[in-house]
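Write out the bound-state structure for NAP.
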Amino acid sequence: MGGTLKGKTCVITGATSGIGRAAAVQLGGLGADLILTGRDRRKGADLVRKVRRDPACGSAHFLRADLSIQREVRELAAAIRSRCARVDVLINNAGARFDTFRLTTDTIESTFATNHLSHFLLTLLLLDTLRAAEAARVITVSSGTHGGAIGDFERQLRRENYDRKAAYGNSKLANLMFAYELARRVKGTNITSNAVDPGGVATNLGRNNGIVSWLRHVGYYALKGELLSPEKGAETIVFLASSPAIEGVSGKYYFRKREIESSGISKDEAAAKRLWESSLRMTGLDYLSK
Ligand SMILES: NC(=O)c1ccc[n+]([C@@H]2O[C@H](COP(=O)([O-])OP(=O)(O)OC[C@H]3O[C@@H](n4cnc5c(N)ncnc54)[C@H](OP(=O)(O)O)[C@@H]3O)[C@@H](O)[C@H]2O)c1
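---
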């Protein structure tokens, strides 16, 4: 179902572990030129060595950035822009869960900053390189957990209201609302924007919170018989990045390579517009504002 990606530049955030790492290997196998990003140089170098071993892979480079820090997102965008005249596929995949409230160096709650604001900022800073592609695909990794979120973004950003599940669910809802709103704002251009739920995948997600928290996450899907390998979890991302069947498709949400419905609130256009405006304010940007 995947097409070739020979000659196409694919940027993947969070490529050093789990789903992003598996997606990088699969996209390399389809011939892509890979820009792999993560915050750990050693893991990045290991991955570059691995993908370059596949003779099908175009080229592979690792760029380090901690996406929870806006200065580093800006530096990453600048490094990508200086390296590539165009980006054909941008995969907004990096993500994290935090059991306790934490502020980033920009004094923003860490889950929202890492999962949503980072990708909002990166995508908008890469818009002209996406516009330079013949047909650019932006793929944002959301989650089925968005379904339990009510979109009380401002409330969850405050220490006294912090709820780890709500914070994560809201960040994944924000991913989805961003993907849809971007699709509306770039409609009629060469850029498409879709979102994906990879399913329950055995990765390092949540390991930062300790083994018990991590086992709770993995055990939940394992008990339901739905725990996927990272390779399986990456398949829908790779499908969205490469399949000719997705050409021109935009503003959709995919699970197991099929379009699915997302929650009612994720489709609330006024709420998405408000989230866009507050994300612009929180990142100091003024792009595609209307
Ligand atoms: N696993 C699941 O069941 C599941 C289900 C639904 C959705 N998702 C989503 O899938 C995506 C990938 O997660 P995963 O499950 O593959 O987890 P993972 O194994 O923990 O991988 C997450 C990736 O994001 C990177 N990352 C985290 N915080 C970062 C930061 N501040 N700056 C830069 N990179 C950062 C990690 O870097 P390090 O290698 O340095 O840690 C890693 O490369 C996430 O968006 C997650 O929300 C996962």
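---
The pocket of NAP is lined by residues 14, 16-20, 38-40, 43, 66-68, 93-96, 114, 141, 143, 198, 200-201, 203-205 (CB under 6 Å).
The mean pLDDT is 96.
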